[in-house]
């Protein structure tokens, strides 16, 4: 009987110890999970929008460029982020303008063939790149320095849609036949209206 009295308390103590250990482990896992959840953030911290975020509107094409690197290269990062933004906004302009040019040739009945059509678009794309490359930033920001000693640079730029429409229309009026040239002013007005509605997806 004495053995039974000793045996049952031992079982009770073991059961309590196991319960305490299980609870502690579970709490530890929950704490780690909570910490991981707390540390899980967007690439821009708690902000859900990139710094220097700019968007297309009726008046402007817009883009945000990003570059990452060492804090010792802040000037280079600035230039890289600006170049990134300029390339992005140039792609938007090219996409919008090429559609306008094709519609223009169809509407005026300019049966010039693909060679001249491509030549015209190529010349206009050169103009677009020139406009984009001469654009200065409307926003410049740097992130905090991370554990590796790197920072991110953000640059936002805007390009006037009227400036693009005028440059394209001027190019057409200089290089196309007289009957097309006479319609360049109408094209200029129509293009300005169409570009107001253009917003990249």
β-sheet strand percentage? 5-15%
Q: Tell me the radius of gyration.
A: 31 Å
- Structure summary, number of beta strands: 3
Helix and strand sequence: HEHHEEHHH
Placed side by side, the strands forming the largest sheet appear as 1-3-2
Under CATH, the topology of the largest domain can be stated as Thiol Ester Dehydrase, Chain A
The tally of domains stands at: 2
Q: Mean of the pLDDT scores?
A: 74
Q: Please work out how many helical segments DSSP would assign.
A: 6
- Helical percent range? 55-70%
Query: Termini separation (Å)?
Result: 83 Å
Q: What is the CATH top level name of the largest domain? A: Alpha Beta
Shape: elongated
Which segments are poorly predicted (pLDDT under 50) over 5 or more consecutive residues?
10-37
Q: Pairing-aware structural class of the strands and helices? A: alpha+beta
- Biggest sheet overview: 3 strands, antiparallel
- For the record, the CATH architecture of the largest domain stands as Roll
Topology:
Layout: H1 2-39, E1 60-70, H2 74-108, H3 113-133, E2 139-142, E3 150-160, H4 161-175, H5 178-181, H6 184-197
Helix pairs in contact: 2-3, 2-6, 3-4, 4-6
Describe the overall structure.
The chain has a three-stranded antiparallel β-sheet with strand order 1-3-2. The chain is elongated and about 60 Å long. The longest helix is centred in the first third of the chain and has 38 residues, at 2-39. The protein folds into two domains: 1-40; 60-197, Thiol Ester Dehydrase, Chain A (Roll). A hairpin with a 7-residue loop joins β2 (139-142) and β3 (150-160). The chain is α+β, with helices and mostly antiparallel strands. The protein has six helices and three strands; from the N terminus they run αβααββααα. The termini are far apart. α2 runs antiparallel to α3 and α4 (161-175) runs antiparallel to α6 (184-197). It has helices at 2-39, 74-108, 113-133, 161-175, 178-181, 184-197; strands spanning 60-70, 139-142, 150-160.
């Amino acid at each position: 009987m004495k053995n039974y009295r000793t045996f049952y308390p031992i079982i009770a103590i073991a059961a309590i110890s196991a319960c305490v250990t299980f609870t502690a482990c579970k709490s530890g896992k929950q704490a780690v999970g909570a910490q991981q959840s707390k540390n899980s953030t967007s690439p821009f911290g708690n902000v859900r929008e990139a710094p220097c975020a700019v968007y297309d509107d009726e008046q402007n094409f817009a883009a945000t460029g990003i570059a990452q690197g060492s804090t010792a290269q802040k000037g280079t990062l600035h230039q890289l982020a600006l170049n990134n933004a300029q390339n992005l906004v140039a792609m938007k302009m090219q996409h919008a303008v090429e559609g306008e040019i094709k519609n223009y040739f169809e509407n005026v009945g300019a049966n010039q063939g693909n060679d001249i059509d491509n030549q015209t678009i190529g010349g206009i794309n050169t103009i677009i790149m020139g406009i984009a490359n001469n654009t200065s930033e409307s926003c410049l920001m740097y992130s905090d320095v991370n554990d590796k000693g790197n920072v991110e640079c953000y640059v936002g730029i805007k390009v006037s849609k009227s400036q693009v429409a005028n440059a394209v229309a001027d190019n057409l009026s200089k290089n196309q036949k007289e009957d097309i040239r006479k319609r360049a002013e109408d094209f200029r007005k129509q293009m300005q209206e169409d570009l107001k509605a253009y917003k990249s997806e």
